Amino acid sequence: MKSRTTLAFSSLLGTLLAIAIFGILITGCGTSAVGATPATPTVAPVQKCGSIGVMRAQSTTGTSGSAQSNVAGSCFWQAFQQCRSASLTVNFGSVDTVTTHTFTLKKNSANCTISDAVKNRIIPRPAKDTGTYTCSGLVNSTNELRFNGCGSLGNIVVPTNPVGNPQS
Q: Furthest-apart CA pair in the chain: how many Å?
């Protein structure tokens, strides 16, 4: 009888030992978090094309601040043609008001969308968000960019030359 009890104990001990070793081996086969970096989606950086300042006088003419307006406008136009992420800030100023349009290009699937985040400021008060609009298109004309169909704002004409341009 003694041999039978010893056999049962040794087989039970062997089984438990086999399960423990099997458990250790299984956990060693998993993926290790040490040194692993989680996958992150690739997001294209937004190219900041700059800003254009337009001063509106009592007449309907505006002047952009410098030759940098042409550079900023060209940058945004090129980004639009290639549907690259980009932004352009345009400040329309008057005697005591500033309306800031921040145009942003984004690629959504096969389409390129233009959004316009608008802020209005009456000096000396801080700027307030007045809405974000989606524009239906962009046209590059001589000395101007024309953002078409921007919601209730309609078409927005941005002069890109340093001399001035009639506004509509």
A: 116
- The strand ranges marked E within the chain are 47-56, 61-64, 86-93, 97-108, 111-122, 128-135, 137-141, 144-148, 156-159, 165-166
127 touches 120 (CB < 8 A): yes
Pairing between β-strand 137-141 and β-strand 156-159 as defined by DSSP bridges: unpaired
Q: What is the pLDDT of residue 46?
A: 84
- Distance set, CA 87 to CA 59, 79, 114 (Å): 29, 9, 9
pLDDT, residue 110, reads 80
Q: How many angstroms separate the CA atoms of 133 and 156, rounded?
A: 12
Torsion, Cα of 122, 123, 126, 127 (10° steps): 40
More confident residue, 78 or 165: 78
User: What predicted TM-score, i.e. pTM, was given to this entire model?
Assistant: 0.66
What residues does 32 pair with on adjacent strands?
A: none
Per-domain residue ranges of the chain: 47-166
2: pLDDT confidence band, cut at 50, 70 and 90? low
Report residue 57's pLDDT band, with 50, 70 and 90 as the boundaries. low
Per DSSP, helices labelled H in the chain are 2-28, 68-82
